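Q: Structure tokens for this one, please.
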Amino acid sequence: MRKEHYMKKKVLAVLLSLAVFGGVVCSCSNETADETEASASSEAAATENEETEAPAETTEAADETEASDSIYPLTYVDIYGNSTVIESEPQTIVTVSPTVTEIIYALGAQDKLIGRSDYDDYPMEVFDVPSVGPIDLPDTELIASLDPDIVIVSSIFSEEAYNSLTSLGIPVAIVVDEDSFEGMIEVVGDIADLAGVHDAGVELTAELSEEYSSYADLLETDAVAKDTTFYYAMMFGEYGDYTGGAGTFIDEIITLAGASNAAGDVEGWSYSVEQLIANDPTFILVPDWAYDSFITTEPYSSLTAVQEGRVIAVDANLFERQGPRNFEAVQLIRDAVNSYEAELDAAA
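A: Here is the predicted structure, written as tokens:
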């Protein structure tokens, strides 16, 4: 029973991740159900949002004549056209997104953090910060009692929660995941501005851009292992098979590492076990919590990667949360490719 409960909990987390990756906003839905129902209905909520969609999110100074050493007052317009005005540098922040929280820590702005979501688990210091609930339907009364200068949320945030907070005059900024490293880096800069650490954002985005360029340059100089394929088993088994297909952020992680995505023959997140068996990838990346189950469950256990010991247990957050740690995922794949090619050379 304990194992089944754990699996269901992780399935819920994956479904929430899929909703965020898909850029689904619930801020214009009428969700009042529990977490599972909110996740399942997020796609329908996105359809309702089409009438409010706007160009990609931007941050810009509301007053272009403002002194050069200040970016406030700041107007932030998200991808759905919601406009948020931050009058002055925020001193207190609530984040309702594990991704945003990780970036807040990477920016060194954690001293401003006074609330976070139930799903936040990195870095470990985050557990000292009070939780305000799930990422879609948090406890808005608790958030209001904390009196934050700004609340930064993900695209799965519900309309109910959004309206509840904004009606009290609390600024809420919706940050949507991108499908590329360059987009991720821009989001880091946006979060820095929203958090009141513009200079730290400039420094961190410059470092991330340099790191991205170094990996991109390697693709031009190294022998790219296009015949070495990787499959990321985001979810599998009775609940369905999900991975990162062509055009997803996970796809770019794999290709930036110099390998090929075994699921590059589809777009989006849904895959089939029949396709997986037919493609028979060189390597399989599995979240560490599911490693034992994957390698012992048919038909997955019959895959060549399983039989030959090329299933790698990974921290799912390196692949499923967008931020500076994504480069660790890139290096993990590069290391696996280099080790595999060395073995092939030695056997030749």
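A few notes: The first strand starts at residue 58 and ends at 61. The radius of gyration is 21 Å.
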